[in-house]
Amino acid sequence: HTEPGMGAGPGGACRTRRLHVSFREVGWHRWVIAPRGFLANFCQGACTLPEPGGPPALNHAVLRTLMHAAAPTPGAGLPCCVPARLSPISVLFFDNSDNVVLRHYEDMVVDECGCR
Amino acid sequence: ALEPAPSVPTTALLQALRLHEEPRGVPTLRPVPPVMWRLFRRRHPRHPQAARAGYPLRPCHVEELGVAGNIVRHIPASGLFPRPPETTRTSGLCPTWTVTFDLSGVEPAERPTRARLELRLEAENQDTHRWELSVALSTEATSPRPELLRVPVPPGLPLRADLLGPAVAANVSVPRTLRLALSLDCGAANAHVRLAEASLLLVTLDPRLCPPPRPRR
């Protein structure tokens, strides 16, 4: 589920957007003990030049944006809005042998987005 | 390399979560052991208690148990619920038990880093001081197997024994079934003891789920 009314909609600058993943969606809510779901989020938005007055941020993405503004080169294009920092989750569930299992998964939640 | 995602989302999600079996309908619900809740609460980053406990935690490490690992299983002795394991008296007045653990759900790539046997003995009004429990692998052969380890019976507390090394080899795949012969050494007492609960806490490390170490720039 994407929470309605969140932020400036699909446009606007590259930022994290809320995305809630529910195990009920795939009918696993009977054997997943916890959590019922989790906020996975996703990244969306335009990669533009840094805001005036914002923190100085010269990196490859800004260079690409500058070059694209000065002389658009087919195929080069703008940088992409992607996850820049992720965190893990753990899932507690019954397996098919009725054991209680705790599994740990890395990089499952988007905490920050960035242009790359 | 990412494998091509299958068309059916559920299968793709199963594959991504490295679960090979479609979940079977409603599992046989049973209370979640406190140790599993504790481990979950410690690791689940969205849980405020985890935040208080000093997040971030090291990936692929079970802090509370102090071992490497990313999968923890609480495995009750099969056949224990609702029936207690069979009790036999082979020598003298002290009971022996045979307990079996189904480890077929553990994948060959997983490496055990902790295998802790937990037993709850019920001995009415008995002086369990100086009682000891002997653990051996159990096979169909009639000749007794060599003792793997011997642990004191703590009065009134669950008995715990670390099996990694003696009964479960480290750094190799776990067997599909672990069958143990438990013998109580109760001295000359005529022990009326019941094995109320037997479970195995198994921690494994699946290296395929661990992030590669970041090369230093």
State the helix count of chain A.
1
For the largest beta sheet of chain B, what order do the strands appear in spatially?
A: 4-5-10-7-8
The Cα radius of gyration of chain B reads 20 Å
Report the mean per-residue pLDDT of chain B as an integer. Answer: 78
In terms of quaternary structure, the protein is heterodimer
Helix content of chain B: 10-25%
> Quick check: average pLDDT of chain A?
82
The secondary-structure class of chain B comes to mainly beta
Q: Name the beta content range of chain B.
A: 25-35%
Number of strands of chain B: 11
Taking the sheet with the most strands of chain B, its summary is: 5 strands, antiparallel
**SS field, number of helical segments of chain B:** 3
Given as residue ranges, the uncertain stretches of chain B (5+ residues, pLDDT < 50) are 48-54, 80-84
Walk me through what this model shows.
The complex is a heterodimer of chains A (116) and B (217). Chain A has 116 residues and is mainly beta. Chain A has one helix at 60-70; strands at residues 15-17, 20-22, 32-34, 37-39, 42-44, 81-94, 100-115. Chain A has a three-stranded antiparallel β-sheet with strand order 3-6-7, with no helix packed on it. In chain A, strands 1-5 form a two-stranded antiparallel sheet. In chain A, strands 2-4 form a two-stranded antiparallel ribbon. Chain B contains three helices and eleven strands. In chain B, strands 4-5-10-7-8 form a five-stranded antiparallel β-sheet, with no helix packed on it. In chain B, strands 3-11-6-9 form a four-stranded antiparallel β-sheet, with no helix packed on it.
